[in-house]
Specification:
Layout: H1 4-7, H2 22-25, E1 38-42, E2 49-54, E3 58-64, E4 73-79, E5 85-89, E6 96-98, H3 104-107, E7 116-118, H4 124-136, E8 140-149, H5 151-160, E9 168-181, E10 184-197, E11 201-211, H6 215-226, E12 230-231, H7 233-305, E13 307-312, E14 315-320, E15 325-328, E16 335-338, E17 351-352, E18 357-358
Parallel strand pairs: 6-7
Antiparallel strand pairs: 1-2, 2-12, 3-4, 4-5, 5-11, 6-11, 8-9, 9-10, 10-11, 13-14, 13-18, 15-16, 15-17
């Protein structure tokens, strides 16, 4: 816990109360306690920033990181001594948003990362109304009471994102609401900005207050805190170096995964080729065995039938018996075989096939 009464020693700043927000909250039958004095506080977790907090209030602040490589988020909460007013700057539960289709490869992993969400850009007024409903909507008699443009917050973020020029689209709104708690009316306000960068990423900034005292005083106190926020340049430099190192490591990890994937693919291809080659050899061996079996079968059949094969160039025929001379009928292609003692040359239509030889 970071308590301003005990732990903060710095410059005090006196501010005057702003006008009561009659147009948003209506007439209030409470007496203003005014705006408190302020003291400077430094982020105790990483010394990433400093800001002013109400003197004597129970204030806590810090820098939150969900993961080792997540974007650091600054936050502050402060409660008045009597508990009438509660303030917060920043909400570490809000993710960073990516526009659908901007990073197709990353979208499939977004559901596993609580710091990232996939969503179309939402303007501040709509986002703030939804946020108020989600955060306070379960309270008794909750209702939104107003939405107005937030010119100061708009200017603040336009200055913050000035390096992006027209690649940054910014909207800002002030949302008011009220509800009943412990029988007393509670008034609330949210300063909301949503910033779209390069039509691919966007963030939401939300700060707010709830009070059963004068909302104008609570809002003035909140804005004093919001606009006193100053980053530590040394921390920014270290964070930039850390981010660059994380990106380099991420790229190296990606390249290592790609090489491992390629090696696995190559090994798989080699294994499959070996299987194909083995299958081809088995198939070839099977065909050779089948051809051998076929020749053996043919030879056995010829032996049973007392037949033999004869060949002439690219022609093949079968004749009865094992003979020294082969005769062929050129008109029908019929073959006959004779031995050396066959002297009947009167086979009309048959001619001795001098180039025919037994197998």
């Amino acid at each position: 816990m970071y308590t301003t009464k005990n732990n903060i020693v710095s410059k005090r700043v006196r501010t005057s109360a702003c006008a009561v927000l009659i147009g948003l909250f209506g007439f209030l039958s409470v007496i203003s306690a005014g705006v408190p004095e302020f003291v400077e506080a430094i982020d105790p977790t990483e010394q990433a920033f400093r800001l002013k907090v109400p003197q004597g209030w129970n204030s806590q602040l810090g820098t939150a990181r969900v993961g080792a490589n997540s974007t650091p988020k600054s936050w502050m909460t402060s409660a008045s001594p009597g508990g009438e007013t509660y303030l917060f700057v920043g909400d570490t539960r809000l993710p960073n948003y990516m526009v659908p289709g901007a990073y197709p490869m990353l979208e499939q992993y977004a559901h596993t990362d609580p710091t990232v969400a996939v969503s179309q850009y939402i303007e501040a007024a709509k986002f703030g109304a939804h946020y108020a409903q989600q955060r306070y909507g379960q309270a008794q008699n909750f209702r939104l009471t107003g939405t107005t443009p937030d010119a100061a917050l708009d200017r603040h973020f336009r200055n913050e994102f000035k390096p992006f020029g027209n690649q940054a689209y910014i909207t800002a709104a002030f949302i008011t609401f009220e509800f009943i708690e412990s029988g007393k009316p509670v008034y609330g306000g949210l300063h909301v900005a949503t910033i779209l960068v390069q039509n691919s990423n966007w963030i939401a900034s939300v700060s707010g207050f709830t009070t059963n005292a004068v909302p104008a005083d609570a809002d003035q106190t909140l804005q004093t805190i919001m606009y006193s926020f100053v980053r530590n340049p040394q921390w920014q430099q270290q964070e930039h170096q850390r981010t660059q190192a994380a990106m380099a490591q991420s790229q190296a990890n990606h390249q290592a995964r790609m090489r491992a994937n390629q090696q696995q693919f190559d090994a798989h291809q080699q294994m499959m080729q070996q299987r194909y080659d083995a299958a081809d050899r088995q198939n070839q061996q099977w065909h050779q065995e089948q051809a051998s079996k076929d020749r053996g079968h043919d030879q056995f059949t010829d032996y049973i039938r007392d037949q033999q094969n004869v060949y002439n160039d690219n022609q093949q025929g079968k004749v009865d018996g094992y003979n020294e001379h082969i005769w062929v009928n050129p008109n029908t292609g019929e073959y006959i075989g004779t031995d050396d003692h066959f002297e009947d040359h009167s086979l009309e239509g048959f001619e001795e096939w001098q180039q025919g030889y037994p197998e």
